[in-house]
Design brief:
Helices cover 31% and strands 25% of the residues. By secondary structure, the chain is an alpha/beta fold. It has two domains: 1-324, ANL, N-terminal domain (Rossmann fold), CATH 3.40.50; 329-427, GMP Synthetase, Chain A, domain 3. The protein binds adenosine-5'-diphosphate and zinc ion.
Length: 431
């Protein structure tokens, strides 16, 4: 049941001792980089000054902008000879950032992914089809190495090319897949097109991640395919996937605290929040040589879930990510996260598999239009049905997000589909 029982179930006191030891080592290692050497000198920090985990707040957080400004080697903490791999972020919010790994780093990262997948029940006998982009994006090679280490047969299918994916799934009797949630819904429309029932495969579980998705969206994916979908969270700056992952309890994601020091801070004041309160996740690498990062501001919003997990793992759980602080839309003074809209839409029967939020400004007025794909059976020629559905969506959203959007119903599979992370919002407002 456990990949590494002693680490996964380590008691909290021992875990804290391990963390402090690794933190001190990390700070010493980070001081070899141009960026942290300069920062530590500026704030007058000596490695020995960090005597407790709480002492970490002497160090100001590192941001994506810091990484961008010190492109490409400003954070490198080893000689270039030690490096064996580089990856980069997807560039969702601007210029991509780059991360370097030593052989030791790849080994640690691989181990984390094996731990995650083993936790959900992946074994040697599984056939694992990885439908993520290979290359600089971390979701391809990261999972690939982890599954190989478990001993599964890995099919490095890569992203997109849906008909081929389905062919591979059938021919090689794939049992586990890794897929972006929005793509999982899109792929089901290709199954329909091919007149194959998505339940009629050997797939028993999927790892879904890389983009925010609601519990309702997970349920929809599970219902369509008849498999279990486990949430996988990570970011390239912290290796990529393998940072936090759901166990079979599917109740929050265990964040691997032997590898990452976790803080949840108020995104405005940067003050720590008590467990259970939602804030920005700030992470410190605890086992990285090539490019240690201290107090990285992920911009991702979540909270620590209180209580122990029945699975026996002691690493705390975070709630599914609500979105990035950058994702928050402000419309007529109301703050809205796209995931709130997604959640409502996925609750309404008849709503299809994709949607797009468009924001426009006319004079001083902002407007939100939501294009919503409708299930094929709703296009039965009866306009009354469509109008009823449209009203239901408007009313549902109005009571949830306190804004009355304009809703346009569109044909199934007619909105733009991305092979990578879905683009949910087009903001045409000019400041
Ligand atoms: P970029 O930051 O350019 O998108 P990454 O590929 O490193 O590049 O993406 C990491 C980000 O993706 C995370 O910080 C988070 O915002 C998002 N993400 C990853 N996994 C999940 C998940 N399971 N749920 C929600 N968001 C996720
Ligand atoms: Zn658990």
């Amino acid at each position: 049941m456990y990949w590494e029982k002693d680490v996964e179930t380590m008691n909290r006191e021992n875990l804290a001792v391990l963390q402090l030891e690794r933190l001190q080592k990390t700070i010493g290692q980070a001081a070899n980089s141009f960026y942290y050497d300069k920062l530590f000198k500026e704030i007058g920090l000596k490695t020995e000054d960090v005597r407790s985990l709480a002492g970490l707040d002497k160090i100001p957080p590192t941001t994506k902008e810091d990484l961008r400004e010190h492109w490409p080697y400003g954070f490198l903490a080893t000689s270039r000879d030690e490096l064996v791999r580089m990856h980069s972020s997807s560039g969702t919010t601007g210029r991509a950032t780059v991360i370097f790994h030593t052989a030791g780093d790849i080994n640690e990262w691989t181990n984390l992914l094996s731990r995650c997948m083993y936790m959900t029940g992946m074994r040697k006998s599984d056939v694992f089809q990885n439908m993520m982009t290979y290359g600089l994006f971390t979701g391809g090679l990261g999972f690939h190495y982890g599954a190989e280490r478990i001993g599964a047969l890995v099919i490095p299918a890569g992203a997109g090319n849906s008909k081929r994916q389905i062919q591979l799934l059938k021919d090689f009797e794939t049992t586990v897949i890794h897929i972006i949630p929005s793509y999982a819904l899109h792929l089901s429309t290709v199954f329909e097109e091919l007149q194959i029932d998505p339940k009629d495969t050997n797939i028993r579980m999927a790892y879904v991640g890389a983009e925010p998705h609601s519990e309702k969206m997970r349920q929809k994916i599970e219902d369509i395919y008849g498999f279990k979908a486990y949430n996988s969270y990570g970011l390239s700056e912290m290796n990529g996937p393998g940072v936090a992952f759901e166990c079979t309890c599917q109740n929050g994601l265990h964040i691997w605290e032997d590898n990452f020091l976790v803080e949840v801070l108020d995104p405005v004041t940067m003050k720590p929040l008590p467990d259970g309160e939602e804030g920005e996740l700030v992470l410190t690498t605890l086992a990285r040589e090539g490019m240690p990062i201290i107090r990285y501001r992920t911009k991702d919003l979540t909270r620590i879930l209180p209580g122990d997990c029945p699975c026996g793992r002691t690493h705390r759980r975070i709630e599914r990510i609500k979105g990035r602080t950058d994702d928050m839309l402000i419309l007529k003074g109301v703050n809205i996260f796209p995931i709130q809209i997604e959640k409502k839409l996925m609750e309404i029967p008849g709503v299809g598999k994709n949607f797009l939020i468009i924001l426009d400004r006319e004079g001083y007025n902002d407007h939100m239009t939501i294009k919503v794909e409708v299930e094929r059976q709703f296009f039965d020629g009866d306009l009354k049905h469509l109008e009823q559905l449209r009203r239901k969506i408007v009313e549902g959203l109005k009571s949830d997000i306190l804004i009355t959007p304009k809703v346009d119903l569109v044909d199934p599979d007619s909105l733009p589909q991305s092979e990578g992370k879905a683009k949910r919002v087009i903001d045409n407002r000019k400041d």
